[in-house]
Amino acid sequence: MTNLGHTSAAYLISKIKVTKDQPPFKKSEVIFILVCGNIFDIDYLLLPLVGVPGWLHHYSPSHTPFFGVVYLLLFYFLFRTKFSKQTFILGTIAMLSHLVLDDASYWLSFMHLTTDIHPQIFWLFPLDIRFLPEMKLAFTELYSRAWSLGVIVEFYLIKTPVYVFMELIIVIFAVKTWFKDRLTGFRLKP
């Protein structure tokens, strides 16, 4: 899923009320939830620094629930006095949604709604037995292919149209929610 889809999902998650009497989130809290919804894609930016194409980021250990716990602990120690418990709960849900949405294309392929897709998330890393064979595949066969933005977009649109449609629905709901909030006078606290 693209970052637009992850950001949209995280925005919708930021609208959840964890408790009945919860006040509206501050801008900084919503931004924190949006960052949590996208934090796993930091490896997309970091992998090229060590000579690995960014598009292989789903094969990185930093794109696993194990590292989600690491990110969450880091965030907690950095921001525990700044953000409420509710903010951390929704940040955790946003992180989990990122992994679920990334792996959705793999699960859709089991239902024959997309072409065969390799696992995108290794849920039990470092114990996931699929991890090493998939890493070998990624760094032999996939790494050597001539990938370009056009090839990736074509793959995304042609081979996973149900997935694209799912992302489009998430984005539309997020935009609709954002406009509804603006029209009804809802404002985030500064």
Low-confidence stretches: none
Q: Main sheet?
A: none
Order of helices and strands: HHHHHHHH
Counted beta strands:
0
Whole-angstrom Rg: 18 Å
Distance between the termini: 30 Å
Which shape, going by the Cα principal axes?
A: globular
Provide mean pLDDT, rounded: 85
Q: In total, how many domains does the architecture comprise?
A: 1
Which structural class do you get from the secondary structure elements?
Answer: mainly alpha
**Portion in beta strands:** under 5%
Percent range of helical residues: 55-70%
Count of discrete alpha- or pi-helical segments spanning 4 or more residues: 8
Keywords, separated by commas or semicolons:
190 residues; mainly alpha; 8 helices; 62% helix; 0% strand; globular
What does this structure look like?
The chain has eight helices and no strands. The radius of gyration is 18 Å and the shape is globular. The protein is mainly α and 190 residues long. It has one domain (3-183). The relative contact order is 0.16. Helix content is 62%, strand content 0%.
